UniProtKB/TrEMBL annotation:
Transmembrane is among the record's keywords: no
Gene source species: Streptomyces hintoniae
Residues annotated as domain 4Fe-4S ferredoxin-type: 1-29
Protein name (Swiss-Prot/TrEMBL): Ferredoxin
A Pfam family reported for this protein in Swiss-Prot or TrEMBL: Fer4_13
Keyword line: 3Fe-4S, Electron transport, Iron, Iron-sulfur, Metal-binding, Transport
Keyword Iron among record annotations: yes
């Protein structure tokens, strides 16, 4: 899995950080920061859920 984030699109809801804190963080303004573009398989389900619930659709996944 490959993860990409569109920071300008982010609305700082923080759902991604709550669901997958090993992969996502937030800056001081609450905007998503990607910690791991190629997360370990054990995090894939959480990352998929993060992308699904992101209100701004700012998380893109590429399955390998």
């Amino acid at each position: 899995m490959r993860v990409e984030v569109d920071q300008p699109r982010c609305v700082a809801s923080g759902q991604c950080v709550l669901l997958a804190p090993e992969v996502f963080d937030q800056d001081d303004d609450g905007i998503v920061e990607l910690l791991e573009a190629d997360p370990e398989p054990r995090h894939h389900d959480d990352v998929r859920e993060s992308a699904a619930v992101c209100p701004a659709a700012a998380i893109r996944l590429t399955e390998r």
